[in-house]
Automatic annotation (TrEMBL):
Keywords in alphabetical order: Iron, Metal-binding, Oxidoreductase
UniProt-recorded Gene Ontology molecular function terms: metal ion binding; oxidoreductase activity
Fe2OG dioxygenase domain: residues covered: 181-284
Protein name in the entry: Fe2OG dioxygenase domain-containing protein
Length: 326
C-alpha cells in the first residue's frame, strides 16, 4: 500500500471517529473498493455500512431461518435453553429479560447467544465454555449458526487491518490477538410493538456494544435501528440489502483511548412485521491486555482507562447486564 493510500485511510477513519460520534449521516464502505489500488476510491473508506462483505447470502439466510424456527417454539421449550442457567450466558434470553439502558424497563426482544466453540483451547478463561444447542428441536440449528459465526469472524479479521492502518500500526497488529477470537453472536427477534408507545420499553435501549466492533445483519425493509451522530441526533440506520452495519465497541474505545469512540445505538420495531437481527460482537482473545495504543496517547490526550484484559472486560459487562452485578 502506498503512503498516500495509508494517509487517506488514516484521515477518513479519524474523521469518522474523532471527538465523539464524528459523523452526520451513516457512510458506506464497499469492501471491493478497499482492495482497489486507486487512492481516490479509498477515500470512500471508514464507513459504517459495508457492502460486498463477502459473506454468502445463503449462509445468512440459513442462520436467520434457524433462528426464526427457534423463536417460533413454545416458550417452555425455549426456556430449556435459558442463558441464565449457563455460567457463560449462552442460550436463550426471553422477552424483556435484558435491559441495555438502565433508565428503561426492559428490552422488547428475545435472543439466543452463541460464543466461540473453542472451550478446550489454551484460551480458557472466566467466559469460555460450552455453547447450548436446541438440536432435539432443530437438528440443523448448530451447523447453520456456526457456519455464519465462522464467516462473520473471518470477515472481522479482514476489517482489523484497516483499523490498524488508521492507527499507524503495522497492518498485522491485531492478527496475533485474534487467533482465538472470543466473539459472541446473538440472533434476535423483535416482535412488533404497537402504540401507544412506552419510551421506557424499546426493542433494545440506547447502549454501546462491549467488544471491539460489531458486525450486524438486520432484517430488510424495517426501519428500527438508530445510531447517535455528532450532533447528538438519532439517525436511522435504514437496512440496505446486501450490507452489514459496523458499530465501534467499548474494547476498541479503551484500546484507542477514545480515538475510536463506541457508537451509541438503539432499536425498536414499530412496524407490523416481525423483525430479526444478527449481531456478531468481534472481540480479541480473552487474555489480550487493553493497554492504550501508543499513537492514541499524548499530552493533550492522556490515558483514560485502567488496563484490563479483554476477557475480564467482557465478563464484567455481560454478568452485569444479565444479573445486575459485576
Ligand atoms: O437489532 C439491532 O439492530 C441492534 C442489536 C444490538 O444493538 C445489540 O444486540 O447489541
Ligand atoms: Fe448493540
Amino acid at each position: 500500500m502506498s503512503s498516500t493510500q495509508t494517509r487517506t485511510i488514516h484521515t477518513v477513519f479519524q474523521a469518522a471517529s474523532l471527538g465523539g460520534h464524528g459523523f452526520k449521516n451513516i457512510p458506506i464502505i464497499d469492501m471491493q473498493e478497499v482492495t482497489n489500488d486507486d487512492p481516490l476510491i479509498r477515500q470512500q473508506l471508514a464507513r459504517e455500512l459495508v457492502k460486498n462483505h463477502g459473506i454468502a447470502e445463503e449462509k445468512i439466510t440459513e442462520a436467520i431461518d434457524a433462528g426464526k424456527k427457534f423463536f417460533a417454539l413454545p416458550t417452555e421449550t425455549k426456556l430449556k435453553y435459558d442463558s441464565r442457567n449457563s455460567t457463560t450466558v449462552r442460550g436463550y434470553a426471553a422477552l424483556l429479560s435484558k435491559n441495555n439502558d438502565p433508565e428503561n424497563n426492559g428490552d422488547f426482544h428475545e435472543g439466543f447467544d452463541i460464543g466461540p466453540e473453542n472451550s478446550n483451547s489454551s484460551q480458557q478463561s472466566a467466559m469460555s465454555g460450552e455453547n447450548v444447542w436446541p438440536t432435539p428441536f432443530i437438528p440443523e440449528f448448530k451447523e447453520r449458526v456456526l457456519n455464519y459465526y465462522d464467516a462473520a469472524v473471518s470477515f472481522g479479521r479482514r476489517l482489523f487491518p484497516l483499523f490498524a492502518i488508521a492507527l499507524d500500526l503495522p497492518e498485522d497488529f491485531f492478527e496475533d490477538k485474534t487467533r482465538e477470537s472470543a466473539s459472541i453472536m446473538r440472533i434476535l427477534h423483535y416482535p412488533p410493538q404497537h402504540g401507544p408507545y412506552n419510551d421506557k420499553v424499546l426493542g433494545i435501549g440506547a447502549h454501546t456494544d462491549m467488544q471491539c466492533f460489531t458486525i450486524l445483519w438486520q432484517e430488510p425493509g424495517i426501519d428500527a435501528l438508530q445510531v447517535l451522530n455528532a450532533d447528538n441526533r438519532w439517525v436511522n440506520a435504514t437496512p440496505i440489502p446486501g450490507t452489514l452495519v459496523i458499530n465501534i465497541g467499548d474494547q476498541l474505545s479503551r484500546w484507542t483511548n477514545d480515538v475510536f469512540k463506541s457508537t451509541f445505538h438503539r432499536a425498536s420495531n414499530r412496524s407490523s412485521a416481525e423483525r430479526y437481527s444478527m449481531p456478531l460482537f468481534f472481540g480479541v482473545d480473552y487474555n489480550v491486555k487493553l493497554h492504550a495504543i501508543p499513537s492514541c496517547v499524548s499530552a493533550e490526550r492522556p490515558s483514560k482507562y485502567e488496563v484490563i484484559t479483554a476477557g475480564e472486560h467482557v465478563r464484567s459487562r455481560r454478568l452485569a447486564a444479565v444479573y445486575g452485578r459485576k
